Structures are given as C-alpha cells and as structure tokens.
Amino acid sequence: MQRPYNFSAGPATIAPEVLQQAASEMLDWHGSGMGVMEMSHRGKEFISIYEQAQADLRELLAVPKHFHILFMQGGGLAENAIVPLNLSRGGTADYVVTGAWSQKSQKEARKYCNVHIAASDEARGFTQLPAPAGWQFSPEASYVHLCSNETIHGVEFHALPDLQALGSRAPLVIDFSSQVASRPVDWARVGLAYGGAQKNIGPAGLTLVVVREDLLGHALPVCPSAFDYKTVADNQSMFNTPPTYAIYMAGLIFQWLKKMGGVPAIEARNIAKAKLLYEAIDNSQFYVNRVARDCRSRMNVPFFLRDESRNEAFLAGAKAAGLLQLKGHKMVGGMRASLYNAMPLEGVQVLVEYMREFERTHS
Ligand code: PMP
Fold this sequence. Notes:
- 34% of the residues lie in helices and 16% in strands.
- By secondary structure, it is α/β, with parallel strands linked by helices.
- It has 2 domains: 17-258, 3-Layer(aba) Sandwich (Aspartate Aminotransferase, domain 2); 262-362, Aspartate Aminotransferase, domain 1 (Alpha-Beta Complex), CATH 3.90.1150.10.
- Helix 4 links the parallel strand 3 and strand 4 (114-120).
- The protein starts with a strand and ends with a helix.
C-alpha cells in the first residue's frame, strides 16, 4: 500500500518499514512473551533495547566519549527551563534569537537567570541569521544558546559558530529538535544539544540531551532531581521510569538510519529534497519563500501562495493528491513542507508536480 506523503512538522512521518517492524513486535518482542510497553525498564530485555539505541545513536551522530547521551522527557519546551536550571548557576546566559523557538527559549530562561540577547533577527521578521561576527557576548555568560533550525520560520544554521574564535569562552547550547540526525554535528563547537524526538528520531515523549561531561554537576538547588543532568547521567537515564516505548521506537529508527547509509547518506538525500522544493518555489511566479538563501532550512520549508485566497483550494487539492499536513504554522500562515529524514525524494517530487499543476490551473 502506498501511504500518502506526510509533511507534518512534528510529530512527523516515520518510515513504513519501521512502523511495520514495531507492529510485528507489538505483542511479543523477540520471543520474550511481552510487548515492549509491558516490560520493566530494569529487566534485561529493555536494558538491551536501551543499550543498543544508545550505541547506535552514538555511532550515527559520532558523539565523542566525553559526552553523555541522556533520554529525558518534557520536550524542547521543558529543556528551555532545564538548561538554565543546570547550567546558568543563577548568573547570566547569552541567547541568539532567530525565530519563534529561540524566542520562547530566552523567555523561559528569564525565570532562572539573567538573559542577555547576544543577537536577534526579530526586526527582519526572522528571515536571515544575524552574522556571528556581530554577536555581542556578555563576558560572564555561563552558556550561549541558539536554535540550530527554526521549525516555524524555516531558518537553519548550516555551520555552527566557533564561539572561542568569536570571543566567548562559554559553551554553546543548541536546540536541535528539528535538525537532529539530518546532518552531522560539529561536537568540537557544542557543549550541549537537546531536542524532542518527534521530528527526526521517534515519537513524541522522548527528549534527547547530549551533554559534555564537564557541564554536569552544576544544577541550582531548586532543580528537580529528575531534571538534574548529573542525576540522569549517573542513573543511565533511569532515575525515573524513562519513556520506554519511545526509546524502543527511536532505536528502530536508528537501525533504519544505519541501513540507509547513516547520517552522511541521509544528509545527501536531504540536500537533494530541499533543492528540488526551493527551486520549484523560486522558479515560479505563484509561490514565494522569504528566507535568505544561505540560511534556508533543509527540514522545514515555509512558503506562501502569492494569492492567499487560494490557500484552502491548495490544501484541499493536496490532500486529494495524497499530500498531507501542508498547512503553515498559525504564527506565519501560508504553507509549510517538512522534509525530515523519513520523507523520501519521491514525496517531494509528487509535491512539486502538484504545485506546478495547481499553478497551471489557477493562474
Ligand atoms: N524547539 C523546536 C526547534 C521545535 O521545533 C519544537 C516543537 N516544534 C520545540 C522546541 C518544542 O518542543 P516540544 O513541543 O517537544 O516541547
């Protein structure tokens, strides 16, 4: 059965092979007589699932030994609090604001520390990235936070800044919720990366945190124990019951990614998908994307019909053509096509053909 192509920004499409495997193991995982949801997180069956998922993710993302991989809960929004609770030491943190998600991050952090805005693109409507050479760091900042891919505004960092070279001694914290596993990470430039799983690496309910060893152990006394990175690391993410089924699903996705050739191969496919869609938009008089070309997101492509009165017809036709969840985020309107790892190139080809046909019949 050919399923429709699903362009949701998250929770998002998952490869059918992965869903089929999960379905086939639903009642009995590997002859254990139990489904994964029914297993104790401390039993040998689940521990083996957890360890395999950790090892596969470490390999896929080339995570160095001096970083811990934590499986937490609460999503990206909870991390907006958990990061300052763990890293700010009640002092100052620098925030780079490039869209809705980093905006939310800095607002939440104000509950726990002094926030200094090192740079913002708000005045330009979040259509560009402020050039790192112009960022204003505070000398006492305990970390610098940015969102490496803005899911709503469609702005992506194609290279992470080298903070030391720019004059900051603080570790870089990135929200890579909608970028994780779509491309390699330059860990030499990162102190901590976090993200919800529900876009590229699994179902909602699992939050991934990759944190450098030296950043553990500095949590504020008010930090909830379950959110203290050191407590989580010391207990192999099992201080409290982890989201076991979501970890299992993420593990299946990591296996699938390895079969696809790993992150470099999936990155090449992601580049091809994004190129196809942006070219179709740029070569038409009918559609428009307003993000500067050098920072357009490969994962989330917001676009607009120049004549917005045709939006409903566009979406209804798309659905009939087997192209789902293309409606843009309410904050910016228009359309948005999310092209996460599990979206095949054919899905984007069908979308582009649909867009051309709609343009032909409606201009
Ligand atoms: N950061 C980014 C970049 C996101 O895209 C999202 C969700 N779309 C979040 C944070 C919030 O994640 P959650 O809803 O899992 O808390």
